[in-house]
């Protein structure tokens, strides 16, 4: 058996055990917890993707009446709140249906795009955090490319997240 098959087997077994847990049963059986986690995931998505796309569009040159630095200071805390809500509610939703999700190719795409979106955001902050004040005068090409990628990654996360149920 190759390493990929062993990892897949281990992951599938772990997901099945997680889904068979009492906590997972409580999530699925609850009148309120699962629906509230689902709603929390949607609210978190709005709070995460909305501000990120607005800031990315500004980084790309749209809405020049507002400085990049000021918009970043305003929207970043909202996006972080959305990310925290997404992660917490996503863990609950995953726990309730782990065995099916771990093997779902659309969930795998969503997970990969999430990692890419987070890596891009962290890299952007590390590279450009001290340059945001001068962004309005001379936006760097690499930073603009990262903003465009960010929009693609985060819309991809949202779209694939909605499509999971159909595959």
Task: Describe this structure in a few short sentences.
This protein is mainly α. The protein is 80% helix and 0% strand. It is elongated, with a radius of gyration of 19 Å.
What structural keywords apply?
167 residues, mainly alpha, elongated
Question: Please, could you describe this protein's structure?
Answer:
- It is a single chain.
- The protein is built from 7 helices and no strands.
- It has 167 residues and is mainly α.
- It has one domain.
- Helix 2 packs across helix 4 and helix 3 runs antiparallel to helix 7.
- The longest helix has 29 residues.
- The mean pLDDT is 93.
Distance between the termini: 27 Å
The gyration radius over C-alpha positions equals 19 Å
What is the count of structural domains?
Answer: 1
Helix-strand pattern: HHHHHHH
Biggest beta sheet summary:
none
- Fraction of residues in H or I helices: over 70%
The DSSP helix count reads 7
- Overall pLDDT metric: 93
- Please state roughly what percent of the residues sit in beta strands, choosing from under 5%, 5-15%, 15-25%, 25-35%, 35-45% or over 45%: under 5%
Uncertain spans: none
- Which structural class fits the helix and strand makeup? mainly alpha
Number of strands: 0
> Which of globular, elongated, flat, extended, rod-shaped describes the shape?
elongated
